[in-house]
Amino acid sequence: MRKIDTVRFGTLEVEKESLLHFPQGIPGFFHLKEWFLVGEDDNPIKWLQSVGNGAVALPVALPRSVCPEYKARIAEEDLEDLGDEGEICSFVVVNIPSGAPWKSTVNLRAPIVINHRTRRGRQVISLNEEYSMRAPLFSEEEREVLVAQVAPGEDLGVAEEK
């Protein structure tokens, strides 16, 4: 069990078996090699929390929770160091703009793939050119409902966009 201090979640105790290893890091965070997932089982958005920097946590979601027909085509060389393709799951990074969560997008073009047995992962570029790096998370109707629920000037407490 490791104690990890995080900005968003406080101090967490994480089992060694829950750690995810990204030998190449993640674009923008190449120096951070160890991560773990945080979040409630019933919440579709989880957080990929860095072990090495408690201030770095990326919101992620299962791609099919956003795009039911999602099927990323990934080059074999991008999967070579991860192991058996049948043991791989993927996540998409969610971008939540400060003060405007209804404008959230997901990066369908560059999923994070993880071998759930070896606990190794990496972010890859899918070969699907039709997938956007900024696909809307919410439909137009959902955005309208979210905007209507926010009082003018209300502080949403949403992390700054990086």
Note down, in words, how this protein is organized.
This protein is mainly β and 162 residues long. The protein has helices at residues 63-66, 76-79, 140-149, and strands spanning 2-6, 10-14, 20-21, 34-38, 45-50, 57-61, 88-95, 105-106, 112-115, 120-123, 135-136. A hairpin with a 4-residue loop joins strand 9 and strand 10 (120-123). The longest helix is centred in the C-terminal third of the chain and has 10 residues, at 140-149. The two termini are 30 Å apart. 23% of the residues are buried.
Short description:
The chain is built from three helices and eleven strands.
Report the structural category.
mainly beta
Strands, total number:
11
Biggest pleated sheet: 9 strands, antiparallel
Shape summary: globular
Helix percentage range: 10-25%
Radius of gyration, rounded?
16 Å
Compressed to H and E, one letter per element, the order equals EEEEEEHHEEEEEH
Averaged pLDDT: 90
Number of helices: 3
Tell me the distance between the termini. Answer: 30 Å
Strand residue percentage? 25-35%
- Ranges with pLDDT <50 over ≥5 residues? 158-162
